Amino acid sequence: MPLAVLPALVGDIEEAFNVHFDAFRDEPIMRFLYPGGVDREAHRKGTATWWNHDRTGHHFKCVDTDTGRIVGLASWDVFWKPGDGFERPAGIPWLEGEDKARCEAVLAPIWDLRVRFFGKRRHVYLASVAVDPQHQRRGIGSLLVKSGVDMAEQLQVPVYTEASESGFGLYERMGFERVTHARLIHRAEVTGDPADVEVPLVVRMPSAAKGMSFKEWEEKGFPENYQGLSDCHIALFNYFPITSWAAGFHRSTQLWIQHHHDHYPSRPRGLSPFFYASMDLIPMFKHDRPRLVCLGIAYVHALAGGKNALEIGD
């Protein structure tokens, strides 16, 4: 029975969410999201309205091509435009009173970690993946997760989600790493469960990261190009002493200085043009700490070299 992953359309909502709710029937989160049970008609209408105007959501169904039945559903948030990332929700609009407060207390640490890890950074987030309980062990989950991984690879951005202990192996096989420097724990005093429950957090870095872990990327200040430097600067850093590398970085700013000579002839030559060029570069690098540090190193190197070292063609 061949399987196919296709975009889920508004007309698929009822059948696709039959699968979703069957798959999540026994999950603890359901009693917080829908403490009085699910009003399926209201859910269908609300989901249709949301899908029609949502700019970042992408939904994929897995279809058994022999029967035409939907046997799986994955929902993704794809933040590919700079500055168009995750915003912490104001709350849960369909709940009231104690139910609302309890649900939001459960979801708050999930939201907080998403803001901490990604916020406005470009990334792909797996909101949910569901497989029809009658069609387990057919590779449906892997196919659905791959749909988002492929999108992330095209965009060269990370994929992030909250997994489960039972599902962690699937993510590990698909190149995800477990986040170990931060933890998502649902506290017993909030959930009412007998004990605290830890939820595995997983990230898949894109191939452009060249083996860099998520923790390393975070420690570098989340540079957009993952290395924090251009390939040219990385090569200089790897093969030359730091002063020579700073000189190389300084050389790369010479075109900026020439630009200022050409467009601002009234500005003095020498150190001042380098200063003006540096001021132009700083806003570009303000979210890229390694490169900003390198700009400072190059600037100090220029100061040490004196005025003549700053002239074009030196």
Report on this structure:
One of its GO terms (molecular function) is acyltransferase activity, transferring groups other than amino-acyl groups. Residues 3-206 form the N-acetyltransferase domain. InterPro entries: Acyl_CoA_acyltransferase, GNAT_dom, Trichothecene_AcTrans. This is N-acetyltransferase domain-containing protein. Pfam families: Acetyltransf_1 (PF00583). The chain is an alpha+beta fold. The chain has two domains: 3-219, Aminopeptidase (3-Layer(aba) Sandwich), CATH 3.40.630; 231-310, no CATH class. 46% of the residues lie in helices and 15% in strands. It is built from 13 helices and nine strands. The strands form two sheets. The protein has a seven-stranded mixed β-sheet with strand order 1-2-3-4-5-9-6. The protein has a two-stranded antiparallel ribbon with strand order 7-8. Strand 4 (123-131), helix 5 (140-155) and strand 5 (159-162) form a beta-alpha-beta unit. Helix 9 (231-239) runs antiparallel to helix 10 (242-252), helix 10 packs across helix 13 and helix 11 (254-263) packs across helix 12 (271-285). The radius of gyration is 25 Å and the shape is globular. Mean pLDDT is 80; it is low at 229-253, 270-274 and 304-314.
If you average the pLDDT, what whole number results?
A: 80
Q: Would you tell me the structural class of the helices and strands?
A: alpha+beta
**CATH topology annotation of the largest domain:** Aminopeptidase
Number of helical elements: 13
Round the Cα radius of gyration to an integer and report it: 25 Å
Shape: globular
Major sheet? 7 strands, mixed
Secondary structure: number of strands? 9
CATH superfamily of the largest domain: Gcn5-related N-acetyltransferase (GNAT)
Strand content: 15-25%
| Domains (count) | 2
Distance between the termini: 70 Å
Helix-strand pattern, N to C? EHHHEEHEHEHEEHEEHHHHHH
Portion of residues in helices?
40-55%
Give the low-pLDDT segments: 229-253, 270-274, 304-314
Query: What is the CATH architecture assignment of the largest domain?
Result: 3-Layer(aba) Sandwich
CATH C-level class of the largest domain is Alpha Beta
Strand order of the largest sheet: 1-2-3-4-5-9-6
